[in-house]
Amino acid sequence: MLDSYNYWISIVLMMIGFFGVIASGNLVKKMMGLAIFQVSVLLFYVSVGNVKNGAVPILIDGIDKYSNPIPHVLMLTAIVVGVAVMAVGLAIIVRIKEEYGTIEEDEILGLDSESNKKEQE
Amino acid sequence: MILSNLPVLQVIIPLLAAPICALFPANRIAPIFTAIITFITLVIALTLASNTLETGSISYPMGGWKPPFGIEYNVDLLSSFILVLVSAVGFFSSIYAFKSVDAEIPRSKQPLFYSMFLLCFAGLLGITITNDAFNIYVFLEISSLATYALIAMGKDRRALLASLEYLILGTIGATFILIAVGFLYMMTGSLNISDIALRMPSLSDSIPVKAALAFFTIGLALKIAIFPLHLWLTNSYTNAPSFVSTFLSATATKVGIYVLIRVLFSLFGYEFSFKNLGLDKIVIVLGVFAIIIGAIAAVFQNNLKRLLAYSSVSQVGYIILGIGIASQTGLTASLIHVYGHALAKAALFMAAGCIMLQMGGVRLNKLQGVARKMPITMALFVISGLSLIGVPGTAGFISKWYLLQAAFEQQMWFIFAVIIFGSLLAVIYIWKIVEIAYFSKNLTDTRNVTEAPLLMLLPMAFLVLLTIIFGFYTQPIVGFASNTAEYLFNLSN
What we know:
The complex is a heterodimer of chains A (121) and B (493). Chain A has 121 residues and is mostly helical. Chain A has a single domain (2-52, 66-120), classed as Helix Hairpins (Orthogonal Bundle). Chain A has four helices and no strands. Chain A has helices at residues 5-23, 27-48, 69-100, 105-120. Chain A is elongated, with a radius of gyration of 21 Å. Chain B is an all-alpha fold. Chain B has a domain at 289-493. Chain B is built from 20 helices and two strands. In chain B, strands 1-2 form a two-stranded antiparallel sheet. The chains are: A mainly alpha (121), B mainly alpha (493). At the A-B interface, helix 2, helix 3 and helix 4 of A face helix 5 and helix 6 of B.
């Protein structure tokens, strides 16, 4: 149980990120939570690929036991996806700031419910 | 040489066209280019579909690396079914876009807008055609990121909040799918779907594989907007530009359903998912909730697009119900309803976009008597609405018929009643719109309202024509769907 502490840390990170997404009122803090949530999966994959007493998967003469390089490669893709998600999310938040004047979720919802009420008339 | 490379051309052509489209100047070249590219993609999809019907599955290893070491593109019956659907809806939407996008997006931003659309289109095609589990995640994120950008371009400022909400929920869903792929790789050492399926029988009892199925289902449930996880869909479809609502309502959830069917049948195998874990009962319960709650919520809406969005939630419930019935007839009914709902909902959102263009808004209490000024639009709207209800003579009737037949075969009388009750609820919300449009007194707006432009009516009319044709000449869709269902059930045996 204690050997697989990598996976426990991955789950803890995931839940910290998820809590940040749900509980934060500030939109930028939500994005930070989302980033932590995505990063936890990176730790999970790289832990899967670890080989006991294996070296880092970079080809060096004289070493014949390497960790599995495929999860590393997959996680490079996932890192790029995470960066793109952050970029799009923060761009949308910049636009929200321009339109609403605030990035606190409760204030934005308050402004929205006023315009919703005006529309119902 | 072109014919043998068709599977990869299906995805590469829109993918390369996207940055080229972003470089165009702000004139009419961008929409014309988009229409040409979507037409080429449609031709490729139809060619692949006819090849698959004749010769069986087409396998294309990328770069010549043999699977399972390389990424493999696999066009089988189910893939080609969805490829044709996505390409056709993309083509019709891009013809519709000529006039619709002009009203909602400034000219200077249009080349970038169309380039985002082509990226989303390429991503959806890539999800459908790939046979590699991680590649599904990559293309899913490509199409989702483009979707977030497309939705955020809506005129109303609430589109930004809707897009951010979809971004957060969609990323959580995609990350769950990534975790699922990680569990599968951990247990089988392979990422190729066919390869994992080969190793699955010996692993039926291991907990990571069951966890993988759970994570896959939840992640896909977010993307498909199955009942408790549907909140992003109503806000996004309401506030997005009309062209985006049209395209997404007919394709995004359907591709998600394709991945669900692929995962449940090709990857895990039908025995494991349904018999061992009882996933079918959970899916049936969620489907029933989606049908009823989506339809009831639709009845109370004042905004036409939000009504159609809740109707989408309800109709996706039917498709999920068909999968949950877990018989060949049920799966056939789901696949037919994928087509029927896509055709009907795309036409309905196109009509809502026409109304938005001519009337300036989609609030139902401002649309009284609109059918007198826009007769063709409302007539097409009504026919598509009849397809949603399941009136005989439309494609919607065929899928409801098969669903009822599947429920009857399995002796699930409660499901039988729910399907009929759902159709009655659909009558209520479609009648609500018909009453306001046709039978109300004068138009409250004194604007000079005319019929929608021809370029917007033509794709809508064509989609409605397809709905009616497939309601009578059912052989293409029903034959394809039942062959696909039989093929999927035989995969597991």
